[in-house]
Amino acid sequence: MDRDPSQIQSFLHNLAADERARAERYYFDRDREHFVVARGVLRDILGRTLNRAPESLSFCYGSHGKPALAGETGDDAIRFSVSHSQGIALYAVTRGREVGVDLEHIRTDLAVAEIAERFFSRRETAMLRTLPAELQCQAFFHCWTRKEAYIKARGEGLSLHLDQFDVSLLPGEPAAVLGTRLDPSEASRWSLQELDPAPGYAAALAVEAHGLRLACWQWQPSV
Ligand SMILES: CC(C)(COP(=O)(O)OP(=O)(O)OC[C@H]1O[C@@H](n2cnc3c(N)ncnc32)[C@H](O)[C@@H]1OP(=O)(O)O)[C@@H](O)C(=O)NCCC(=O)NCCS
Questions:
Q1: Closest Cα to residue 20, out of 5, 3, 32, 7?
Q2: Domains by residue range for the chain, with CATH
Q3: pTM value?
Q4: Whose CA is nearest to atom 45 of ligand 1?
Q5: What's the pLDDT tens digit per position in 171-192?
Q6: Distance in Å, CA 160 to ligand 1 centroid
């Protein structure tokens, strides 16, 4: 997400007034620039998808802050999700399906068992405990990104309680929503996919569908 000043200016130029106001509120230049770049690239990706100028796009926001494209409604509406961590951004775009993506830089200095006790479900915490210490960090980040991708796809933020659903986390186990407590049929509506965008990062994608074809690209500025 570090870009040269002329690229940042060009992204800033494409932002809407509310996005520029948000950019102004960042205290540190680096955070402001990362926000501008993340939004600039999002507008570029969506503009290319819709064959529209990036600056012509408008965003609206759900009650918990999930951004969406204003005016994109109906069964084949373009949906998207964004995540950023430690200088990298990950974008997911779908047509007609809810989508959530999460990316985390893997930190090896975290007390993962304690954080899991606090945030994960009982089933997830129990699964994590079965692992030897050297496998727990990776499994922790699998669990974290899968939970977060699902939450972001649903768009309800942390009003969706983290202990209300279980995801897979054991090494070699495919990413999946294993169960949900409020509505047991909910788990089968979603597919989760582990992503590997860069060394040292964990990431996951949640889509309200099964058997979709996933295509991955690295964003490049248009020439
Ligand atoms: C709002 C939330 C999405 C923030 O997630 P995050 O991991 O801090 O940040 P990410 O970089 O992954 O995502 C931020 C992006 O999500 C999007 N977003 C914001 N609110 C959202 C919502 N309610 N639903 C889906 N996406 C949302 C925006 O595009 C945002 O990008 P922007 O800041 O450039 O506008 C939310 O899920 C949250 O607060 N999570 C807390 C983290 C936590 O405790 N997780 C426990 C997991 S076990």
A1: 32
A2: 5-57 (no CATH), 101-207 (3.90.470.20)
A3: 0.94
A4: 148
A5: 999 999 998 987 888 888 999 9
A6: 13
